Amino acid sequence: VQLVESGGGSVQAGGSLKLSCALRGYTDEYCIGWFRQAPGKQREGVAVLERFGATRVEDSVRGRFTISSDYAKNILYLQMDNLQPEDTALYYCALGSSTLAWTSLSASAFVYWGQGTQVTVS
C-alpha cells in the first residue's frame, strides 16, 4: 500500500487549497484520514473518512475544511478554505485499520502513511 499526497503550497490568509491523496495498492482498512504537524508540535488529526462513507472533521477546522473522495480513482481530498497562518503544517494522509482509528483520530491508530505535503499560510 502506498499513499501519495499532493496539492500543498503557499497561500495568503483567507485563501484556499485542495490536497489530494492517491491510494495505490489494495487495502481494506477501516478508514482514511488527514493529519497535520506543525514545527515543534504533535501530529494532530484533521478529518477522517470511514470505509462506508461517513466523515468526521475536527472542531479546529470544521466549517473551513471538507474531506471527500473519488472512489473510482482511489483519491482522497481535503478542501481547505479560509486558511489561516495557524494552518501552516506538513499535511499527511494515513490509513487506519480499526474502529479506534475512526473514533479517536489518533495518529497511533493509523497504519500506513504518506510522505506529506507542505502547506504554508502567510
Explained architecture:
With 122 residues, this protein is mainly beta. It is 5% helix and 51% strand. The chain contains 1 helix and 11 strands. The protein has one helix at residues 99-104; strands spanning 2-6, 9-11, 17-24, 31-37, 44-50, 55-57, 65-70, 75-80, 89-96, 110-113, 117-121. Strands 2, 4, 5, 6, 9, 10 and 11 form a 7-stranded mixed beta sheet that branches. Strands 1-3-8-7 form a 4-stranded antiparallel beta sheet, with no helix packed on it. β5 (44-50) and β6 form a beta hairpin. The longest helix has 6 residues, at 99-104. It is globular and about 40 Å long.
- Euclidean distance between termini CA atoms: 34 Å
**Strand segment tally:** 11
Order of secondary-structure elements:
EEEEEEEEEHEE
Oligomer: single chain
Mean pLDDT: 93
What percent of residues adopt helix (DSSP H or I)? under 10%
Rg over alpha carbons: 13 Å
Main β-sheet description: 7 strands, mixed
* Number of distinct helices: 1
Backbone shape: globular
Q: Which regions have little confidence, pLDDT < 50, spanning 5+ residues? A: none
Structural class, please?
A: mainly beta
The portion of residues forming beta strands comes to over 45%
